[in-house]
Amino acid sequence: MKISGFINLFIGSLFIAACASAQTKKAPAQAKKASAQTKQKTALDYVDPNIGGIGQLLVATDPSVQLPGAGSLKICSNPWPEIYDRYLTDKVFSFSLRDEVRYGTKTIPSWIMATTGNIEVTPAKMASNYDHDFEKVTPYYSSLLLEDYDINVEYTVAEQASYFKFTFPQSSDSHILLGSNAQFKVVDETTIEWQEGTGNRGYYFYAKFSKPFKSFGSWSGDKAFAGTNTQSGTNVGAYANYVTSKGEQIEVKVGVSNESSEQAKQNLEKGIPAWNFEAVKNSAKSKWAASLDLFKVEGGTEAQRKIFYTGIYFNNGGESLEGRMKLRDDKIAERSQRYASLEKSQLYPAVIGQGGMFQHTSLVNVADLYLHGIRNFDVERAYANMKEDFLGSTKLPWRKGPATHLDSFYVKNGFFPSLAPGQQEWIKEVHPSEKRQSVTVTLQAAYEAWCIAQVAKGLGKTDDYEYFMKHAHDYQNVFNKETGFMSPKTEDGKWVTPFDPKLGGGQGGRDYFAEMNSWIYTWYVSHDVQGLINLMGGRTNFNNKLDALFVEQYKTSKYKFLDLFPDMTGLIGNYAHGNEFSRNIPYLYNYSGAPWKTQKRVREIMDVWYSANPLGMCGDEDTGLLSHFYVSSAMGIYSDPMIPSYPIWLIGSPIFSKSTITLGNKKTFVIEAKNVSAQNKYVQSATLNGEPLNKPWFDHATLVKGGVLVLNMGPRPNKQWGSSPDAVPPSMSKAE
Questions:
Q1: How far apart are CA 204 and CA 192, in angstroms?
Q2: Which of 413, 445, 505, 646 is most buried by a 10 A CB count?
Q3: Looking at residues 148-161, what average pLDDT do you find?
Q4: pLDDT of 281
Q5: Residue 15 clears pLDDT 80, i.e. is over it
Q6: Does 397 fall in a domain?
Q7: What is the C-alpha to C-alpha distance for residues 255 and 602, in angstroms, rounded to an integer?
Q8: Integer Cα distance of 591 and 695 in angstroms
């Protein structure tokens, strides 16, 4: 299903005052200049890929050029030395050809570079100084000046193909170099093909040059071999030599495939059939404009709009963000096709089990699609795999494979056991540095059991539904009512003592938790918030403890605390906004009769921990998850993409006066925030499609039908709005 039209976003305008009050007529040249100056900004104009390019503690963002909707290629400059905070680098040594590095510094093996002078093949010698003031960075196109060579580099992207344009100085020794880690072949005077190996997966590249080589060669390690047309090894490449005049441009198109060299060639011919850099650039630009224009916001500041639209970019484009926010079921349905008629090994990873952190993401994703009414795949087969995944595979963090003793113990007893203090690990499958993370694994298992139960219920599998719903209560088994915290237990069912909810668990808390402490994971019960309220003794106790989270200090110096918990960035008390497993917490007040506190906290987080500069990210961006919080919350609604449960939207405190989401079929969902301002952050009253709304949430089905949510804002909280016990969002348990 295609969108019949996109609404161009124009936010704000720049008007130039008259030069003199008596001036009533402009000359044609002056009028043309004034027209250019008063041009309104589009959504695309606000995107700044350099936001977050300096990591405040953890991984910085990458200013990649790509297509929206999670395009297959992400290309950007590669810094030298290879550093985390790429915005702060003085030099670049190459440009990526399929992806950029994440969670490390070592460059993805395949790259391209242009130089002049003696041929150099090592990064340290070929790297060039550059200056951000001579750089242009956009989602669809980037350029920079290699100052040491006086070469301007421009690049853009198509589906499975990238396009580079090098503007050279006058030189008798101009070069374009290609690097990888497998093998190269110079096919003819305008063609080079090569491979890249990454574990069990290989990538194939096919490059065409717009000008025949004067000569060529290959290299291996730090040695170049003139005239040789093949090379293989772990650090190899090929190069083309030219004589260039001042301002001469040489273009290179590169197709990529993970299947074969022939497929890479076909991808290039299909994606970039002609030598027309501007056409490819403009096509990518149009796709980004259409994607970003699905979200139109009005009001707010220039900086807030910049953060907002850059956030959509970091979500890999509006269509991908739609999938994450589940705004257009037709787009989600397209993606769910991959579940149709697949064998078990394809529907899930080749080896059953998560293999990542502590989540079985395939299991959660299937349940999430099902709960949102998207079922055009083999649900029965998917359900069988969900069940086997839960009962037959390991829940150990960062491990794949069959169930271990610990997993069997969990299924029987309803909690993942911890080691006793001083006890040595004896389960060989436990990751040596990631440890058991026993409490987090138990909480996640309870949530995943709930996910399976919802699909079982829909399929009429009553016995399974009751079995997994019983496991969905397992989070209660690790809640210590005496301390009020989620806490570790040993196999004999005894609480681990001593246990510190702030500092317990060793490095990153990993003996018991994933990267953070019990102050965070005590709230990790997204499928049954009301059940957690009951465990804590009711709304008052729940709210008091949640209030304490945001002011609780560290029991040690902040320096020592972050040394122990480096992933807990973006701190407000012991709340850590920089980590993705915490961001639903500010919205929990919507469940406990105090939605005005959600409104206050959400505004505080957006104001404090997001900014429109290279220091603008307080933690790992994690494929757009950090930006997702801002994009969603700035419009006034939120649904957590990491732990999706009920298909609902929680209401917060918007910063924009009007947000319009284009849904397709000429439908829109509009959020109007009347009288909104920095001070007017509290919802006084609300209507949904003209009817009074007295609860701080609404169904996803309502959103996708299109409509209007009106939030009347004011400077003081209306503590009555959304506070009734009847107004709470759905949970597995009922209030006691």
A1: 11
A2: 505
A3: 97
A4: 98
A5: no
A6: yes
A7: 44
A8: 10
Within this chain, do residues 127 and 273 fall inside the same structural domain, yes or no?
yes
- What span, in angstroms and rounded, lies between the C-alpha atoms of 354 and 362? 8
Given 289, 316, 339, the domain boundary residue is 289
Q: Is the dihedral of CA 112, 118, 121, 123 positive or negative?
A: negative
Tokens of 596: 């005005």
User: Residues 227-265: pLDDT tens digits?
Assistant: 999 999 999 999 999 999 999 999 999 999 999 999 999
Q: Is the pLDDT of residue 328 over 80?
A: no
Check whether residue 166 and residue 282 sit in a common domain: yes
pLDDT digit string, tens, across residues 442-493: 999 999 999 999 999 999 999 999 999 999 999 999 999 999 999 999 999 9
Give the pair of three-digit tokens for residue 141: 């196109």
More confident residue, 111 or 18: 111
Partners of 658 in the beta sheet?
298, 672
Instruction: For 538-666, list the strands marked E by DSSP.
Output: 571-572, 575-576, 637-638, 648-651, 658-664
Q: How many CB atoms lie within 10 A of CB 351?
A: 13
- Asked which of 71-85, 412-426, 557-571, 696-710 is least confident by mean pLDDT, the reply is 71-85
In a domain, 108, yes or no: yes
Both 401 and 258 in a single domain?
A: no
Q: Are residues 251 and 360 in the same domain?
A: no
Range of the domain at 344: 327-522
One DSSP character per residue, 469-511 reads HHHTTGGGGGEETTTTEE--B-TTSPBPSS--TTTTTSGGGTT
CA-to-CA distance for 605 and 505, rounded, in angstroms? 27
Same domain membership, residue 91 and residue 238: yes
Using DSSP's 3-state secondary structure scheme, residue 53 falls into coil
Number of domains in the chain: 2
Cis peptide before 498 (omega within 30 of 0): yes
The overall average pLDDT reported for the chain is 90
Structural domain ending residue among the three candidates 501, 522, 543: 522
